[in-house]
Amino acid sequence: MTSSAPQAPKRPTTLTKHGDNRTDEWYWLREKSDPEVIALLEAENEHLKAYLEGTGALQEELFEEFRSRIQETDLSVPVRKHGWWYYSRTEEGRQYGISCRKADVDGKPAEEEIVLLDQNEVAGDAEFFSLGAFSVAPTGERLAYSTDLSGSETFTLRVRDLNTMTDLEDVIEDVYYGATFNRDGSVLFYTRQDEAKRPYQVWRHVIGTPAAEDVKVFQEDDERFFVGVGGSKTEDYLLIVTSSSLTSETWILPAGDPTGEFQVVEPRRQGVEYHLSHYKDAERDEFYVTTNEDSPNFRLMVTPAATPGREHWQEVIAHRPDVKLDGVEPMAGYLIMSERAEGTARLALYELATGTHSVMEQPETVYTAGAGGNAEFDTHVVRYSYTSMVTPRSVYEYDVRTGERTLLKQQPVLGGYDPTAYTTERVWAKAADGVDVPVSLVYRADRAKDGGPAVLYGYGAYEMSTDPYFSSFRLSLLDRGFVFAIAHIRGGGDLGRLWYEDGKFEKKPNTFSDFVAAAEHLVAEGYTSPQTLIARGGSAGGLLMGAVTNLRPDLFAGVIAEVPFVDTLTTMLDPSLPLTVHEYEEWGNPEEEKFYNVIKSYSPYDNVVPAAYPAMLVTAGLNDPRVSYWEPAKWVQRLREANTGPNQIVMKIEMGAGHGGPSGRYDAWKDEAMVYAWILERALKKG
Known about the structure:
Elements: E1 13-17, E2 20-24, H1 35-51, H2 56-69, E3 74-75, E4 79-81, E5 84-90, E6 98-105, E7 108-109, E8 114-118, H3 119-123, E9 130-136, E10 142-148, E11 155-161, E12 166-175, E13 179-181, E14 187-193, E15 199-206, E16 215-219, E17 226-231, E18 237-243, E19 248-254, E20 263-264, E21 274-280, E22 285-291, E23 299-304, E24 314-317, E25 323-331, E26 334-341, E27 344-351, E28 356-359, E29 368-371, E30 381-387, E31 394-399, E32 405-410, E33 422-430, E34 436-444, E35 454-457, H4 475-478, E36 483-487, H5 497-501, H6 509-524, E37 533-538, H7 540-551, E38 558-562, H8 568-572, H9 584-587, H10 593-602, E39 615-621, H11 630-642, E40 649-654, H12 665-683
Parallel strand pairs: 35-36, 35-37, 37-38, 38-39, 39-40
Antiparallel strand pairs: 1-2, 3-5, 4-5, 5-6, 6-7, 6-8, 9-10, 10-11, 11-12, 13-14, 14-15, 15-16, 17-18, 18-19, 19-20, 21-22, 22-23, 23-24, 25-26, 26-27, 27-28, 29-30, 30-31, 31-32, 33-34, 34-36
Helix pairs in contact: 2-12, 6-7
């Protein structure tokens, strides 16, 4: 079924810190220019191909199942802004989306379509394509867009005249995500990265002038901070936000004065975050501020736009220990509030005239709701998305005057999908320290609790929440008897800021023990068994996969670790690498001995020991700027050497892509079909 796994020669390097010596036999794999390194990675791909040779028909079957449920020619719900309706659409057989607009006629889209950007045409024959910026000027006459053809997350920025549909001579190389126009579209702001690929500068470009004449308007010298630039929803202000994991600072500039100087709203204070939303009508001109100052779950403040500093902030909604305030978005007379309560992402409305706060009720108990598509300020409807593990993504409008809710579109699932055939629920696993960990499940309603196959997904870092969501791909597992589960573990933000803080720094091991507890609970309750349970996670969730595999290799039939951050200690000791210094506030700085010891205690690469490891599928991207390819490549070598059992550890390297894997949708579907085939072979013991 498979050829011999590639073996990289050992060339031991001794790494010393705090009097501690570590031996890294495969440190040399970081030399990307070494032909021997490239040859090894290509050999890994050939090995995987041989290993999966018998699954070709299954992969094709899965791909066709995925495709059969998707309406390949489709379009998004149009969003109105400044007399235009904007939307994107896809066409059958084409990899990328097409961005379009139609004129507004009596509140509805006109018949004539105007294509703003066909990503398929821009991508051409490139193996990889990613769109980094897509920003239409407030006047509607210009489009700024940026492209990446390697997966390195370094982009080329261009400007398109939407009257003539031609690209101007304005071309700016080596920019980061995003771009923002001033009010009349004559000036464009963008960000650049430093040598460690940290966005640290904001530049101003005057349309029609050479890029060499662009002016740097902001630079962040603290390597812990990342910089971004954007505009307020009212389009009255341009905003520069610079933030670390624990601290933020905002600078503002009236959008009508693009050559003016940005002014700081409130100077940074370590550990204090604040975020601004501008509100302006006939009676008010103010900023609403969400801040964690003395409020771990954030509170809402208001301040005059003319004097936005901290001394003028007044409290609107106090801190709530059981509700996390994720953000606010202004609309006429109201604030749309994104909140998190009992592990659920929900929406609420705050009426400015009465001070009334009301939660928008939803039809299911386990769901995810989020504001989106609210481009215009002067409106009485709230556009939002809704999904659960059985309900396809749906776009609704809610009328704040009448309370009427209108379904605009639900993600089509072709082939007669019946949501009543499936059950979703939330269970609670008891962690090692007694904390209850929520786990969201979905499975066929007729499935017995007989220890059958299951996939358990986890992430658990950066306060990112893995909220319940629908996937038509997932039906291919559910209809084969699988349970799909999401472990809402500490380190994520699923239960608020304290849930995050209880899974970072010295408490990071809670993340791993929570995931193990979730797996053990599923086994104890009969949902699955160690012989049929697959664990899956990527990036920081790949670190999770490595840690739990070292902790409990007996608990899983298979583990999928995608672009995994597994050489954690060595990477965090190298400040020249992308993200390292920024992430001191996530993992701790190992230059301090206490953090060195904590990170070393769980770093997957440093804790591989002789054991019967589960079958493992590991992925990487050669051009990945977030998790360097050599981390998973080295880890696989060490795992194979330590593995005392019969299970195979295989690896896939994207030789022309980065952190996100294949960029085209059909390529991504084929990649997922490969992963699903691997899951089925492991969990159902067919191979």
